[in-house]
Amino acid sequence: MSAHTILFLNQKGGVGKTTSAVNLGSALAQRGKKVLLIDLDSQGNLTSATSIDGRKKGIYEVIAGQCRVQDAIQQTPILNLYAIASNINMAGLNIELVQEQQREFFLKNALGELDDQWDYVLADCPPSLGLVTVNAMVWAKQVIIPMQCEYFAMEGLNLLMRTVGNMKKSLNPDLVVLGILFTMYSKRTKLANEVVEDISSFFPNLVFKTMIPRNIRIAEAPSHGLPINVYDSSSSGTKAYKALAEEVIERVARNF
Ligand code: ADP
Ligand code: MG
Fold first, then answer.
1. What is the CATH number of the domain that holds 70?
2. Of 40, 230, 246, 251, whose CB has the highest number of CB atoms within 10 Å?
3. Measured between alpha carbons, how far is 244 from 233 in angstroms, rounded to an integer?
4. CA-CA distances (angstroms) from residue 172 to 19, 71, 82?
């Protein structure tokens, strides 16, 4: 059986894409799943949050045909958790790809030789809907949309849903939204609850029951190069990402 391929997608920055990719990945790894993370963002936040070496060959070199995917995979300090680094070269890729034929298919072609050893391959997208993100949507089968409970949440979400729908109609018929994930949630905030209610009634089956609470330990963990479940195993963040892992396992088994 081939891996579940999941993108963390939102054109907005600071919504918890990287945090969720790392911490869901680590929670799945702790559950015994073999997980590969791919950093697609030139900022390399996932690379540093998992303590892999950003100077080694990474996803840019794989996409550019300078390195085989197998040779870009690095082991993280966490059992079962592996990652492919990103570096600043990724910042130029959108423009480099524009001139290429089949420019939307570079990532899919480059990852084609990933073997069947992975249970999950999770990719962290940059905060834009540029060509790198389009490449990611051509390759993956499932999308998780992390979002904050903010006033303009619905506008951004509608654009994302349309974008995924257009990709499904054109370049990747297999693409589906696996779920909408609320991050940095404060249950005592009236606005947060209104946004959750609003979006849940609009997309009733898509919102994950698990919401990630605002938790300072989650924000601290990346500076130690560790996922939350290793940095602080008893934190509310650890519990939340563990619950999310269970929900994801259940969802991918059920209908996708
Ligand atoms: P994105 O990848 O979408 O830009 P990040 O995952 O980098 O977003 O998160 C943005 C910032 O918010 C980071 O500094 C991160 O540490 C912090 N953060 C993310 N999730 C939480 C949370 N649940 N509680 C507290 N801080 C968080
Ligand atoms: Mg990020």
1. 3.40.50.300
2. 40
3. 15
4. 26, 27, 26
Model-level pTM greater than 0.95? yes
Q: Which domain holds residue 242?
A: 4-255
Q: How many domains does the structure of the chain reveal? A: 1
Residues whose beta carbon lies within 6 Å of some atom of ligand 1:
13-19, 45, 127, 183-184, 212, 214-215, 218-219, 222, 237
Q: Rounded to whole angstroms, how far apart are CA atoms 136 and 154?
A: 23
**Which is nearest to 118 in space by CA: 182, 186, 35?**
35
> Cβ–Cβ contacts within 10 Å for residue 137, how many?
24
Per-residue pLDDT reduced to its tens digit, 204-220? 899 999 999 999 999 99
ipTM over 0.85: yes
Residue 255 identity (one-letter amino acid):
N
The pLDDT value given to residue 43? 97
pLDDT at 162 over 70: yes
Q: What is the pLDDT of residue 179?
A: 97
Q: For a ligand 1 pocket test, name from 8, 9, 19, 37 the mutation site with the most ligand atoms within 8 angstroms of its C-beta.
A: 19
